[in-house]
Amino acid sequence: MKIKFLVALLCATAFSCQIDEVLDPNNPSLQGVLVNASKAELQGLVTGLEARHREYFKNATEMFGSFSREVAPFFASDPRFFSDWLGQSGPETYPDFFAAAGTYLSPYTAVKQANILIESVQNTDALTTAEAAGYLGFAKRSKPIN
């Protein structure tokens, strides 16, 4: 009886679970846009690149804002900004790089997104020469801004 139970338990644990890969239905995969991307997919990459620019501006404004009356509305949601930046919490920073990670990561992710856009434009047949030049010019212009 004991052996039958152990065999049944072993079979149940070995063959019962299969992890399915979850794909994001709202966004194209990287492989999907790198090979023969449609105009809609390319426009999605452009929109995402512009969103990265806005993310950097928001983070930089919050990170490098002055400590006066106008800084309080930016950081009213979290009191750690005042105490940490004024050094009242001690010399140790948060291990998750609180409040500053987006300021430093956003430009790099925007450059990566621009590189993906350039590669996608170079590997698609959906664009005319003039349209491809426009996409490439936009992506190349976006890289030095960040």
Backbone structural class: mainly alpha
Gross geometry: flat
Q: Give the proportion of residues in helices.
A: 55-70%
The largest pleated sheet is described as: none
Task: State mean pLDDT (0 to 100 scale).
Answer: 78
Rg from Cα: 24 Å
The fraction of residues assigned to DSSP E strands is under 5%
Q: How would you sum up this structure, described in words?
A:
The chain has seven helices and no strands. With 146 residues, it is mostly helical. It has a domain of 86 residues. α3 packs antiparallel against α6 and α6 runs antiparallel to α7. The longest helix is centred in the middle third of the chain and has 26 residues. The N and C termini lie far apart (68 Å). The relative contact order is 0.14.
Brief synopsis:
This protein is 64% helix and 0% strand. The chain is an all-alpha fold.
Question: Keywords for this structure?
Answer:
146 residues; mainly alpha; flat
List the helices and strands and how they pair.
Blueprint (H helix, E strand, L loop, with lengths): L1 H14 L14 H5 L4 H26 L6 H4 L5 H6 L15 H22 L6 H17 L1
Helix pairs in contact: 3-6, 6-7
